[in-house]
Design goal:
- It is built from 14 helices and 5 strands.
- By secondary structure, it is of the alpha+beta class.
- The chain has 2 domains: 229 residues, Rhopdopsin 7-helix transmembrane proteins; 155 residues, Alpha-Beta Plaits, CATH 3.30.70.270.
- The longest helix is centred in the middle third of the chain and has 47 residues.
- It has a 5-stranded mixed β-sheet with strand order 1-3-4-2-5.
- Helix 3 packs parallel to helix 5, helix 7 runs antiparallel to helix 9 and helix 11 crosses helix 12.
- It is rod-shaped, with a radius of gyration of 40 Å.
- The chain is 71% helix and 7% strand.
- The N terminus is likely disordered.
- A hairpin with a 4-residue loop joins strand 3 and strand 4.
Length: 402
């Protein structure tokens, strides 16, 4: 009866491991992880091992051969599982140097299968080797445990590996007691070892599934974070003028689009429209590099007179727009007048001789978001009036001098 119960337990273990193997194999089709591939191959090896053990108990003619496949396949399971744990923890892959462990497993399997002693005595040495393999797999996960100590999947895997190590170690004295002291109750206990192994190995299998899914989730979260950062960078680039590093017109309309409870909804201040005078002659005579330097010079100077809450926009080729919040027209006009006087003797950066930089500007106050468009039109008109008046003054001055 005890043998029949043992065989039934072995069949149950085979079914449980085949389920884990099938789940792991199915996951490899859609989830590309080398560690998962190693673990899947390990479950395949364990399935072969259990089938071989079942045949060894039922087909006496080739028992030694089946025991050899049982030993070797179980060692191969342990080695492949260790390889999966190492790859998951450190990214380490199997190399040609690792084949020595496979050769050692082959030699030990051949030796155990050929020893002229009862298989129960051979099992004692076999269990010690298997316990060592499970313990090595537990140690191989140490870097991953330090890296992600709170991972539920890692805790399940580590617990299962530790319990399997203890489980196979405890078989050694139990088998010794049964073999050398002939305790019937202990022999009955050993009839259920396959069920104990199946429960712990199934726990280990589901732990690997949890670890892979957690790793995949972390990767997806990381990719989402990178995509959000890339989107933020692209949005920033889409709203920043590359020449002057001021906001562009797209940024202005994104900021001032009417939305409920928007920060600009109830603010007031002044709109300033600025246009650089005579930039075309500079471009035609000295080149666009000098013209770009002049535009950057104006942008840099405008930044020096605005506060942190004010906003500078490059409105067009040589036009700028400033939102100066909570400021009066008189104060804004004073700042711009002082800036205009300081810019006149300056020169564009790419020239040897000083080139006066002049600009015209218009100012208009607004008392809320709804008035900004109208304020821009008024400031634009005022800017062109100033530009026209300056040209008229220069023309009159030139005629008078001649």
């Amino acid at each position: 009866m005890e043998i029949n119960v043992s065989i039934i337990g072995l069949i149950i273990q085979c079914v449980g491991i085949l389920i884990v193997m099938g789940l792991s194999s199915f996951m490899t089709r859609s989830i590309k992880r080398l560690s998962l591939e190693y673990w899947t191959l390990a479950w395949v090896a364990l399935s072969v091992s259990l089938v071989a053990l079942s045949l060894a108990f039922n087909v006496r003619a080739f028992a030694r051969l089946y025991f050899f496949f049982y030993y070797f396949s179980e060692y191969l399971f342990g080695l492949l599982f260790i390889a999966g744990c190492r790859n998951f923890s450190t990214g380490e892959k199997l190399t040609r140097r690792d084949w020595k462990w496979g050769v050692a497993a082959l030699a030990i399997a051949l030796l155990l299968a050929s020893l002229p002693i009862h298989f129960n005595k051979r099992f004692m040495l076999h269990f010690a080797i298997v316990a060592l393999l499970f313990w090595s797999a537990y140690r191989a996960l140490a870097p991953a445990r330090r890296r992600a100590a709170a991972s539920p999947g890692l805790r399940v895997m580590s617990t299962a590996l530790m319990l399997l190590t203890i489980n196979f170690i405890h078989y050694i004295p139990v088998f010794a007691i049964v073999i050398y002291f002939n305790f019937p109750r202990m022999a009955a206990y050993l009839s259920f070892t396959s069920i104990y192994d199946m429960l712990l190995e199934t726990l280990l299998g589901f732990g690997t599934v949890m670890v892979v899914m957690e790793d995949l989730r972390h990767e997806v979260e990381g990719m989402n974070t990178e995509l959000l950062l890339a989107q933020t960078r692209l949005e920033t680039l889409a709203r920043i003028d590359p020449l002057t590093e001021a906001f562009n017109r797209h940024a202005f309309y994104s900021l001032t689009e009417a939305k409920p409870n928007q920060p600009l909804e109830k603010v007031s201040g002044c709109v300033v429209v600025i246009d650089i005078d005579d930039l075309k002659p500079i471009n035609d005579k000295l080149g666009h590099t000098v013209g770009d330097s002049a535009i950057r010079e104006v942008a840099s100077s405008l930044r020096s007179i605005i506060r942190a809450e004010d906003m500078l926009f490059r409105w067009g080729g040589d036009e700028f727009l400033i939102l100066m919040l909570n400021n009066s027209e008189e104060m804004v006009n004073l700042r711009l007048s002082e800036l205009l006087l300081s810019l006149q003797p300056n020169s564009a950066l790419a020239t040897l001789e000083p080139i006066p930089i002049l600009f015209s500007y218009g100012i208009s106050a607004f008392a809320g978001l709804a008035e900004i468009e109208q304020a821009i039109e008024k400031a634009d008109t005022a800017m062109y009036t100033m530009k026209k008046r300056r040209k008229t003054t220069l023309t009159t001055s030139s005629l008078t001098s001649s």
